[in-house]
Amino acid sequence: MPAPSSYPVPLEALLKELRRLPGVGPKSAERMALWLLGPDTERAFSLSSAITSAAEAIRHCAKCGFFSCGEICPICADPLREGREICVVEQATDILPMEKTGIFNGRYHSLGGKLSPLDHVGPDQLRIGALLERIDTEKPSEIILALSADVEGGATTSYLAEILKGKNVPVSRVAHGLPAGGGLEHADALTLQNALSGRSKV
Ligand SMILES: [Zn+2]
């Protein structure tokens, strides 16, 4: 019998799916499969069930883009946040770190990315139209641009500052200090607090 040149088909299928995860290469995928298919199969079934439950229950809030179990997330549904600032961030995962600082009581708006010509991300790929609509309907007191301090974040901030000139709302950008390339997701609470309180008008 010839030596096998590949793993059994179900394992190859698992490895293929794992390799599709962000930042996972062939070796990491093998390590994950080894752990998942280890002596305790409960690991694999538990992960599989968590993925299915999340995929079935979680959607993006129709307003801000944050993760939500309903059409609108609790932050957007909170009447006390009505008419206050809207903090514009790159990703849905940037919202929770800001929320955890406890110093911001407005609403958020995730763009779903930042302008990046190299990655073919232009204004049409971002949730900019939805932001303009929210400004008209929610009439926020201020728009705070809280994008990362790298080149693409800077370009996106400048682009938004320009098109928001047409809206009758004050626009500011957070102070520099957000980690370049990482965005809000990796900033600690104090950094976020300083970035927010040191924001400047644009
Ligand atoms: Zn929301």
Task: Using brief descriptors, characterize the structure shown.
Helicase, Ruva Protein, domain 3, 5-stranded mixed β-sheet, 8 helices, binds zinc ion, alpha/beta, Dna Topoisomerase Vi A Subunit, Chain: A, domain 2
Short summary:
The protein has 202 residues and is α/β, with parallel strands linked by helices.
Task: Describe the structure in your own words.
By secondary structure, the chain is an alpha/beta fold. The chain has two domains: 9-57, Helicase, Ruva Protein, domain 3, CATH 1.10.8; 61-201, Dna Topoisomerase Vi A Subunit, Chain: A, domain 2 (3-Layer(aba) Sandwich). Helix content is 41%, strand content 10%. It is built from eight helices and seven strands, in the order αααββαβαβαβαβαβ. The protein has helices spanning 9-19, 26-36, 42-57, 74-77, 95-101, 128-138, 151-163, 189-197; strands at 59-60, 67-68, 86-89, 107-110, 143-145, 171-173, 200-201. The chain has a five-stranded mixed sheet with strand order 4-3-5-6-7, with helices on one face. A two-stranded antiparallel sheet has the order 1-2. The longest helix has 16 residues, at 42-57. The chain is elongated, with a radius of gyration of 21 Å. Zinc ion is lined by residues 61, 63-64, 66, 72-73, 75-76.
